[in-house]
Amino acid sequence: MLAFLDAHFEEILGAILLAAMVTIAFLNVIVRYCTSFSFAWSEEMTVNFFVWVTMLGTACGFREGKHLAMNIFYNALPRKARLAAFIFSCILCLVFFGALFWTGCLEVIPMWWYTIATPAFSLLIIFRMLQRCNTVLRAGNY
User: How far apart are CA 52 and CA 15, in angstroms?
Assistant: First the structure.
């Protein structure tokens, strides 16, 4: 299963969701302008898919180590202070996405199929962040 997660899972699922968003929006426009009918669910579905794609991009960013950072301050710190800052930022991210996972689980109960991505992808982001922290700490590149 871990090999599957290392095989660019986020990019593949994100591309599928983007294709679904474009298809749903395009079909809704065609149907709305060619008939007097409209898909009422299409806007809500594309907005939810957009949230999903955003969270997948966050997980991908943690996997690749490509999130924006305050490098000018970080690089000015001595090595031990950089390690402390790196560990502190990892802990803050874990707390944030752990809280997002928890609140996402509470949100999922009444509308699970719309909001399942929030807790599920929060766990994916936590996994990717821990994976990246482990890689950086093992290599000593903090």
Answer: 11
Encode 65-83: b = buried (16+ Cβ within 10 Å), e = exposed: eeeeeeeeeeeeeeeeeee
Give the whole-angstrom CA distance, residue 38 versus residue 15.
Answer: 25
pLDDT digits (tens, 9 = 90+) for 10-27: 999 999 999 999 999 999
pLDDT surpasses 80 at 86 = yes
Q: Can you read off the two tokens belonging to residue 129? A: 């962040």
In the 8-state DSSP scheme, what is residue 39? Answer: -
Q: What is the pLDDT of residues 99-122, one digit of tens each?
A: 999 988 887 766 777 778 888 899
SS3 state of residue 69: coil
CA-CA distance, 130 to 63, in Å (whole number)?
9
